């Protein structure tokens, strides 16, 4: 707790952030950015001031999802984040690169240092929630990020195939080792809904999420179907317009946890 306090003190001095939530996954491509953004939008629709810190430096996808093309600028307050149409503050390495498709070929310590600066140098203003799209996996970079930003809790994103392996438990154990509370699991791409009859089809067989959640003693915050309509919104940079209540309960649970 003591070190968390000191990390909080390193925040950009003109900003105040009430709650910091990390979104993690055992590996890339399971929808970590998707879930980060969906939670951000749902909490923002409830009237909270929200920021997204894109800590997935080598695979930054947040700006594109929201159609943000402008670059971040700096002034005497710090680095000024960009914002979505509905005023979610966003900071990502993509807002600093000349070309969006420039590869980030930095080594681990530089990656971690950049993320740290997104905490210490960015003028976030007053936020109720800062959501962090964490680097995937349990390697060196995510570990350093865990140690450099005061996380109040994490959400673990999994795909159905993920649940079969030990990946989820690894992510869970890493959080535990760092004394960070696990808010719950989100199972992404867990089914598709038939557009004609509405029937839910489990593409990967019966879900294992309940089994795992019992085993590690963590709640399931929600299950998200593969949704081609939202996938198209992502491609158009219009993610914020999604219409899906699949994480509404998750947002409510998060609200309740931090209201205490
Ligand atoms: P990660 O951050 O874990 O690497 P992303 O969130 O970038 O993964 O998701 C990978 C790709 O899959 C993206 O193009 C994203 O829009 C798409 N995607 C993720 N979840 C869903 C979903 N539930 N329905 C449709 N497309 C999805």
TrEMBL record:
It comes from the Bacteria. ATP binds at residues 26-33. Keywords: ATP-binding, Hydrolase, Iron, Iron-sulfur, Metal-binding, Nucleotide-binding. One of its GO terms (molecular function) is metal ion binding. GO terms for biological process: iron-sulfur cluster assembly. It holds the Pfam family ParA. Belongs to the Mrp/NBP35 ATP-binding proteins family. Binds and transfers iron-sulfur (Fe-S) clusters to target apoproteins. Can hydrolyze ATP. Homodimer. This is Iron-sulfur cluster carrier protein. It comes from Lacrimispora saccharolytica (strain ATCC 35040 / DSM 2544 / NRCC 2533 / WM1). The lineage of its organism: Bacteria, Bacillati, Bacillota, Clostridia, Lachnospirales.
């Amino acid at each position: 707790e003591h070190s968390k306090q000191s990390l909080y003190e390193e925040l950009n001095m003109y900003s105040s952030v009430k709650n910091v939530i990390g979104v993690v996954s055992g590996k890339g491509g399971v929808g970590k950015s998707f879930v980060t953004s969906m939670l951000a939008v749902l909490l923002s629709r409830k009237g909270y001031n929200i920021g997204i810190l894109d800590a997935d430096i080598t695979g930054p996808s947040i700006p594109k999802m929201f159609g943000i093309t402008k670059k971040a600028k700096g002034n005497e307050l710090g680095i000024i984040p960009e914002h979505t149409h509905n005023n979610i503050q966003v900071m990502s390495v993509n807002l600093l690169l000349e070309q969006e498709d420039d590869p980030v070929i930095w080594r681990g310590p530089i990656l971690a240092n950049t993320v740290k600066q997104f905490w210490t140098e960015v003028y976030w203003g007053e936020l109720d929630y800062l959501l962090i799209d964490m680097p995937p996996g349990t390697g060196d970079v995510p570990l350093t990020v865990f140690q450099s930003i005061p996380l109040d809790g994490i959400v673990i994103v999994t795909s159905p195939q993920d649940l079969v392996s030990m990946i989820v438990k690894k992510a869970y154990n890493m959080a535990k080792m760092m004394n960070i509370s696990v808010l719950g699991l989100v199972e992404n791409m867990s089914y598709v809904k038939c557009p004609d009859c509405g029937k839910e089809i489990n593409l990967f067989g019966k879900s294992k999420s309940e089994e795992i959640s019992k085993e590690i003693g963590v709640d399931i915050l929600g299950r998200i179907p593969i949704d081609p309509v939202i996938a198209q919104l992502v491609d158009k940079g219009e993610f914020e317009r999604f219409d899906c209540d699949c994480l509404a309960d998750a947002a409510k649970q998060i609200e309740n946890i931090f209201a205490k």
